[in-house]
Design a protein that fits this description.
The complex is a heterodimer of chains A (790) and B (272). Chain A has a six-stranded mixed beta barrel. In chain A, a hairpin with a 5-residue loop joins strand 15 (534-535) and strand 16. Chain A starts with 5 loop residues before the first helix and ends with a helix. Helices cover 53% and strands 19% of the residues of chain A. Chain A is an alpha+beta fold and 790 residues long. In chain B, the strands form two sheets. Chain B has a six-stranded mixed β-sheet with strand order 6-7-8-3-9-10, with helices on both faces. In chain B, strands 2-1-4-5 form a four-stranded antiparallel β-sheet. Chain B has helices at residues 16-27, 34-37, 85-92, 115-125, 141-149, 158-164, 180-192, 210-227, and strands at residues 41-52, 59-70, 74-78, 100-105, 108-109, 126-129, 198-202, 230-235, 246-251, 254-260. In chain B, helix 5 crosses helix 6 (158-164), helix 6 crosses helix 7 (180-192) and helix 7 (180-192) runs parallel beside helix 8 (210-227). Chain B has one domain (16-269): 3-Layer(aba) Sandwich (Rossmann fold). Chain B is an alpha/beta fold and 272 residues long. The two termini of chain B are 35 Å apart. Helices cover 30% and strands 24% of the residues of chain B. The chains are: A alpha+beta (790), B alpha/beta (272). The A-B interface holds A 400-405, 419-421, 423-424, 427-428, 431, 690-691, 694-702, 782-783, 785-790 and B 86, 90, 93, 95-96, 116, 119-124, 126, 128, 130-132, 134, 136-139, 143-144, 146-148, 150-151, 174-177, 190, 202.
Amino acid sequence: MIGLSSLDLKLLRDMWRRRGQVLAIALVIGSAVATLVMALAALRSLSDAREAYYDRNRFAHVFVDMKRAPESVAARLRAIPGAAQVDTRIARFVTIDIEGEKEPLRGLALSLPRRNETALNALVLQHGRFPDPDRANEVVVHEAFATANGFLPGSSFAAIMNGRKQRLVITGIVLSPEHIYVIGPGEIVPDNKRYGVFWMGRKALAAILNYEGAFNSATLRLLRGASVDDVIAAVDNVLGPYGATGAYGRDEQASHSFLESEFGQLRAMAGVIPPIFLLVSAFLLYTVISRQIETQREEVGLLKAFGYSNAAVGWHFVKFAIVVSVVGLALGWSAGAWFGYSITELYREYFRFPVLRFTIAPDIFLMSAGVAVAASCGGALIATRRAVRLTPAVAMAPPQPATYRESLFERLGLLGKVNATGYMIVRHITRFPARSGMTVIGIALSLGLLIATMQFFDSITLMIDSFFFRAQRQDVTVRFVELRADPVRAEVARLPGVLKTELRRGVGVKFTHGPRDRRGFILGVDAGSDLSQQVDAKGRTIVVPPSGLMLSRRLANHLDVEQGDIVQIDFLEGRRAHRQVRVTRLIDEYVGLAAYMERSALNRLTGDGEVADSAWLTIDKSQGDALFARVKETPGVFTVSLQHRAYEKFRELLDQNMMTMVFFYVGFAAVIAFGVAFNASRITLSERAHELATLRVLGYHKREVALILVGELALLALAALVLGCVIGYGLAALMIELFTTDLYQIPFGLAPATYGWSSIVVLVSVAVSSAFVVRRIQTLDLVRVLKTRD
Amino acid sequence: MFYVKVAFPSDCDGGPSEFVGKLMETSIEPMADPTIAEERVAFSVRGLTKVYGTGAAQVHALRGVDLDLHEGELVVLLGPSGSGKSTLLNIMGGLDRATGGTVRFRDNELTACNDRELTTYRRHHVGFIFQFYNLIPSLTARENVALVTELVAEPMPPAEALRIVGLADRMDHFPAQLSGGEQQRVAVARAVAKRPEVLLCDEPTGALDSATGIRVLEALADINQTLRTTTVVITHNAAIAAMADHVIRFADGKVASTETNPTKRKASELSW
């Protein structure tokens, strides 16, 4: 049996009387805790799963692709200081043909290591068996591709490799630490149905692609403490003559860097949202406890007169905050666990781990409890100072009558002519400027948070518009196996259904400017291109300059380059020329670290003549099937990608995730707005109950009295709307900054409607909270008010 | 002279039009002639009971009260604490509900009115004065009066009401800047500014020293004389009874006695 002290009983009864406010504040704390637990636990679960996976399956540190190198070169790679293990392999993008699919699919064919148990990037066999080395047509496929296409061991598909159609039989389904996030080159969202990775015996693949005794891809695992940069430089040195396109570390490995950017967003979420909630909850506790001390002056005096110490009285009120945070923690932990579990389930669809368990480490519980209790106690302590300072005699005397004076608005003549109740509203607001200000800020923060989170829809609309409808307006992209001279245009144009053909060329390069360097890619675009416009973050079309280089702003920042500077370009393909080129234009782009040149200028720099590596087409959709059938059979064509599919996948992803996010964001904002507004009007009601009852006695109807409460809240909410839009703008910009990764920048484009919808959500929350409070006007005791002093 | 300009939108006791009609009829007559006005019954109370609480905790505040109050009278209710006088005043003022019996204001049964109708009744017909003033601290004296004058159609200007109670030079002060007596006089001004037919005062001098109390009573008597407002004053203070037309003594929830003062004394002649 637990014996509660009388003070604790009083505390519990006080809380029960204020249960509405307690719950409102606990909800705000709970939102902070839930966000924190969800983001940190999901982050930890993902990164732990990744680390364990990387470790167990020996995920490489350095990757390099080249045209072709004899197997003997591998020994030179192994001799590089810092290299612990080097695996060579054969890798090739191929066109995949699945029965019943008219559109061509893309795949990455990789050679299996000789011994998976000791290999780098070792595969995890999920179902079936590894191919028999003696059978040329057996493969294992990545689980993502298998699931999307309904493949089981024993299923088969065809791949066009080296111009020949190969029938391949699936013996097993695997996972790979290199392909946790599976995304085709040049894609912005995964499309597992149309892009897949598969592995076959090295001998078989070498035979098909004519790579006996040679390799075109290598991965390296480094000794602990070895410098990645030094090893990359050494690898480039060794493999340069073999057509290597430049070694790169994990930071540029597609799957790894996508995971990293997801982690970054989870970190940003944990860093931005909870502090706002905790700030608001601290303020709410401050106001509630201040008011409690105000109404319990006599009790405080009595307790002190009985001999309770200042500390004991202060602790009594701080305990109120602690109990509220405990309720908030209980709500937040359960919601956080549920959200975290749901988000991890969502991740499971995109990130393929052999084992991904959602767990919440004890330190996350502890940490969230720590910050929640600390924020609550902070608010409570400030409020409690007053109770501690009251001497018993002062506390037991009735408080001084509230002194009011004309508000600043009236003295400046801004108020105009209002009635007496209007003065009551305005003067109560200005009598407690700090509290009114905090209420405004609290509601404004909820609006700001909502605007800042809802902006992502505006951003994505902008991204879609700029990416799919302006920057890449082609229907189909055809990549050639090798560089083709310009007359290929006529050849492509003759394919069935082709309406328009534009040639492109891209070259892998290393940019160097002073001490900084960065691997990248220059896209050569023809002057006056119809199918692609480079669109900047403000939606303006930026024309690729006829000479010199156009860099995306982020790449320029990486290299510390301004417009007009000269950068060193080392071509990583073909003749591997080294050139100095002037940066003649910068462009603020959303995705990637792109660099552009006019194709002819690029070709002059590389010294390759008028050549292209791909063609962008618009097609007559009714002839699509004929076109695809032909392309599948065309040996010179490397891959084909379809713009409408990418668009559909993008929309699908958006529709899946966004509604959930909107639900959370609107819920969060509503919780804050409701909590702040409910608390503010509850306190106003408590302070003014006597006045409002007097008005009722004087013949004011309930709705007229309610108007005083609602009017005050409405004025504060109105001010909060203005401030909230400003905060929203700032917070949106901050979030964009935090969510910007190496891979992409989210465009900043708050639409006016976002301000409007967010304001409506917040106003509705405020209205609902005031409706709760207004109901209490019914219960005002008119008779008692006549007999008591305020 | 004064009129009820705002209709009483009630449907209690015989439908709205009847009630409004009766009020209009009674109100449009000039009240200046005391021989007419004093004959008219303002309040008629019959068999009024009020029980608070249930079971063992039941308190019988009123145990069957019958009385008539005439228009323009100044009546003092005397009695010890708990004798039921405040309960009667609250029911007459439309602030509380009876358990049994009837209260009629003129021809209208208040005990049959709903909450909304009682509010409208208070708004247009009743002025209240309380022991603790009940001023709104955020409003100046003038604005406290305006709080009431804004509700009715033809009130006194707030400044005039404050002049009547001798506060012409304190109109723009906030309650916290006024003494207790001044605050109570603001309350009097607030009660009379809408020219109510009834003025109900519960211990109006209870929180004041005698000199200040007498000033407040002077203001009340003055208003009763000049506006012919039916005035009911509750007090513990027997000395105040001397200024009344009638004195009703309460004991144990019932009327113990009713006296008529043959000669009313002026408030300024009182002392305690």
